[in-house]
Amino acid sequence: MELLFRGQRDLGAAAVEFALVALMLVMILFGTIEFGRFWMIQSSLSQIAREGVREMAINGQEGPTSANKLMADRVLALNLEVAPAVSADAPGGKCSVGETATAVITASGVSTMTGIDFWGAIDLKGKAEMRCGG
Hints:
Blueprint: H1 2-59, H2 65-76, E1 85-89, E2 100-110, E3 122-131
Antiparallel strand pairs: 1-2, 2-3
């Protein structure tokens, strides 16, 4: 009889150990997913900034309006809950040959998918520079 009861107590300990280990594994899994998501958003913002500065460098004689519109349109595809700040500029407002155009796109307050923000919302930024006129 005593062997039967001892085995049942061991089953309870195994269930508690499994619950502790499973909790840690789930936390690692969600941490990995969140890290990958932030990395994806960061690389997308950098790519959008590169596209915007290229537009500014090639067609910037009339000012940064077309580059800002291009970047704003590309940001919509990211489906962020926050509206990123978009800016493309060059010295003097126009992209003359030999000058450097700069595009910056910032997404402030990007939260996690799970809604659990231990560190608060995160600010992500993409920046690119290119010489005007090629």
